[in-house]
Amino acid sequence: MQNPSSKRASLTKYDALRLLCAGGFLVLIFLFVNANYGGIGTHSTLLLIAAIVGGYMALNIGANDSANNVGPAVGAGALTLTGAIFIAVIFEASGALIAGGDVVNTIKKGIIDPAMIQDTSTFIWVMLAALLSAAIWVNIATFIGAPVSTTHSIVGGVMGAGIAAGGWGIADWDQVQKIVASWIISPAMGGIIAASFLYAIKRTVLYRTDMKSAAVKIVPILIGIMAWVFTTYIILKGLKKIITINLPTALGLGLLAAIIFYIIVRTIITKRAANIEGSKQGIDRLFTIPLIVSAAFLSFAHGSNDVANAIGPLAAIYEAARAGEIVVKAAIPLWVMLIGSIGIATGLALYGPKLIKTVGTEITELDKVRAFCVALAAAITVIIASQLGLPVSSTHIAVGGIFGVGFLREYLNTDYNQKIDKIRRHMREEENKDEASIEAFLTEFDARSLKQKKLFLSELKQKARDEEITWWERRRIKKAYKAKLVERSMLYKIIGAWIFTVPIAACLSAALFFMLRGMMLP
Q1: Closest CA to 397 of 192, 150, 187
Q2: What is the largest CA-CA distance in the chain?
Q3: Which stretch of 85-89, 240-244, 253-257, 481-485 has the lowest confidence by average pLDDT?
Q4: pTM of this structure
């Protein structure tokens, strides 16, 4: 057996190897940019620094943000950690390279007015400070195990450096208010939608006496809905920089995919039903393939969208250094896109496991059905929010969905325990039953259909004595039967990190801007 000291040594060697690989990636960026763009002009040094910082930001996006797409599948056991990283690396990089676009907005979310920035040098300092502050904050969040929004991080960075350069009037405060509102809107929408799907699955499949027959009818419909949602999601979000398709057309194409998937899956599920148990565990296995597919789709869409958080400021700095002017939209050279895509994939492979485990296992226990609901909620919420013009975060949505299914489990578990307690007290006090008889009845009660349970509890309520108990006693009873299935410490840590993301990134960015200006001015 390995002793603790040797285990610590092996961990240290592994950490050193990861650090060496990450450092090697940044060194390669330095060598490439220095060899090809070292003489681009007076700002070549800043471009070189920006390329390294952009690579550093891409590493952090991979380490933190990408975990939300595959974490639920890993927590549910649909994917191993190695398999999840393999799928995420391929689809994150593919999304960034194939659908990352040819042009990127340099001012994320239009958070500041670039016309109020004095000159090209100041603009470069703003972008560099924003990129570095966002990267540092995401790195800190990854270290403490808190999934945060890299989009909000870069928005905070741009806002802080922009205010430092141009004053308070440079910021679009209406946009800031929308982003602050999204801290509540994103997780709430994700949580409500995920919990709603889970409750619907429980009512239509898992609470039925013949779960297998119910699953044969309902699961193909659920997978058809998944095909509809994810086809629409990929068209609107994953491919939006390649081809522009409006919502009705995307929904129509999604519906066509849903019909095709339903026909195919119904046949497969009917055949598989003969080989599965008529239990929750047996039904759970039917969601393995849909979860793997959803992880791939979410990773592709994330790579195509969030690569801009690393390369947007870098592309802006490159254009400013090359052309000597401030640009709101910048073309993306292939080398800039490669830094973003390879950086995200590398960061995910090296440092992604920590956040994948956090998202998948440390918030609440996920099975495949719950993870399926989270993935579905993430795609639906992004579609709805994008059509409403809300600047929601995919990180907040996914984590909110996990909390949503966790809190629903808490509520249903507590409600069930309270009902069982009422039955126990009624049979003990009104019918003078012994414990063996009570346990036998409860076993029979648990096997009844949902309708039969509801009827019995209704009759029990009519027969029950009026109990005069105080509010404090009711609260004590409820607390006694409440199982906490959501890790509260993780809840508080994640909410805290979300709240402080924009302010910390902004303050850090402002400080870095003043440092850069102080060093670069003669």
Answers
A1: 187
A2: 92
A3: 481-485
A4: 0.85
